[in-house]
Amino acid sequence: MWINSQDLLRDGVDPLFSKLGSYGFDSASLFVGAGKLIFEPDKTLYGTMAPVHDPGLKGKDLLREACRGADDHGIGLTATAVCFPDEYHAQSFPQYAAQDVSGARHENFLCPNRAEVRDYLRNLMQDMCARYEVDAIELDYVRYKRNREGSELPVLLLAGKYCYCEACRAKAEASGLDWKEVISSARLASEAAEKVDLDEFRKIGELYRNALDIVRFYVMYPALAKWLRFRVDTISSFVAEIKDELKSAGRTIELSADLFYPTLSWIVGQDYEQLSGHLDSAKPMIYSAAMGGWETGYLRSLYKGLGGGSEGELIEFLDNVQGFSSGASSFAELEVEGAHDQYVLHETRKARLLLGDRTRLYTGLSSGWVPGVRFSTPVRVKYDIDSAVKAGSDGLWFFSYGSTSEEIFETIKNSVAALR
Ligand SMILES: [Zn+2]
């Protein structure tokens, strides 16, 4: 189960871990923050990019309390670090923020190639490993930003909106990439994405009706295929660095990561096969019903920008190229229903095949009910649990504690007990 500082403050450390134990959970992943942390960092470890103890906690060390509480109740504790979205550091060090092809910096997403950023995150992992008895370190948001802001047309998804900063350029050129070609191709995709009108969207809808149409895009823009490969190498090498850092900690600490589900992983620079060389476990976030809420947010803003057409046309595009097969005819329907009911089965199978046997697979499922975002019902949660196990998952993780009802906690307990 994923838990956060608010859950600990609201329920109390002991009642929270006691509840998890009573529902059959054996592990919890606690978000430690990004830049502003739930514990007091060891200032001597960090260079210029030092994190701070979240002032809202008034000196309370929640990681320490959680380590003690989890241990008392027999629950394994994982410290989950949010990697590249870090508003605190992006505001203090805008020169390290991710940059789009026009030179604009992102407000809170850091560049994964900046040496300073990577040093900071390595130091953070070292800090936690040295002073806290956590069983595992988990990397969340260990990826590029999924680039589909506002009402940009979805063609930009294929090019990768970030990061075109000097650090990325130097690394890309050192790896043999033709930077000029990368930039000119990315500009073409970016300009196409900015032509937000109904004719342009319909053209894209006709051109990209299925997965093989996407191949034509990369035949047209081969530099972008290499660019996506470079982004994947960036993330894999970062995870390898963290793995080395953990090895030097002198005790066994597992490394895990929350990943985009396989269909989308390449868009954000995650390669399951490469990552399996460094990760002890992987948690693909296959949130089935919740995916509807995620997608409709973007589709709604796109729809507004188009100023015409039908909601069904936009959903059809998603169903076609992303294998969503929702069959929904309205955003409201998609929001509640999400992806088709075989999504967890298929994505877990892909993850299993790509990871092989050396990395444990914990399918991340949505168990929450948050209007407009996640609509997980007991029936759906039970179905998703059965699908993930059937597809070869070694375990399950649920998102998240605070949004999960007692009824769904019961469902999880009973479904998992029935499988044992
Ligand atoms: Zn960069």
Written overview of the protein:
The chain is of the alpha/beta class. It has a domain at 291-340. The protein is built from 18 helices and 14 strands. It has helices spanning 5-11, 13-22, 62-72, 87-92, 115-131, 166-174, 179-194, 198-207, 211-220, 222-247, 262-265, 272-275, 289-306, 311-321, 331-337, 343-355, 378-390, 406-419; strands at 2-3, 27-34, 36-37, 52-53, 76-82, 97-99, 105-110, 136-140, 254-260, 281-285, 360-366, 369-370, 374-375, 395-399. Zinc ion (ZN) binds next to helix 6.
List keywords for this structure.
420 residues, two-stranded antiparallel ribbon
Briefly characterize the structure.
49% of the residues lie in helices and 15% in strands.
Radius of gyration: 21 Å
Count of beta strands: 14
State the low-pLDDT regions, or none: none
The unique ligands bound to this protein are: zinc ion
Strand content: 15-25%
Number of helices: 18
Please state the average pLDDT score: 95
Distance between the termini: 18 Å
Biggest sheet: strands, sense, closure?
A: 10 strands, mixed
Indicate the overall shape. Answer: globular
Structural class: alpha/beta
Helix content: 40-55%
Summarize the SSE layout with pairings.
Layout: E1 2-3, H1 5-11, H2 13-22, E2 27-34, E3 36-37, E4 52-53, H3 62-72, E5 76-82, H4 87-92, E6 97-99, E7 105-110, H5 115-131, E8 136-140, H6 166-174, H7 179-194, H8 198-207, H9 211-220, H10 222-247, E9 254-260, H11 262-265, H12 272-275, E10 281-285, H13 289-306, H14 311-321, H15 331-337, H16 343-355, E11 360-366, E12 369-370, E13 374-375, H17 378-390, E14 395-399, H18 406-419
Parallel strand pairs: 1-2, 2-5, 3-4, 5-8, 8-9, 9-10, 10-11, 11-14
Antiparallel strand pairs: 2-3, 6-7, 12-13
Bound molecules: zinc ion.
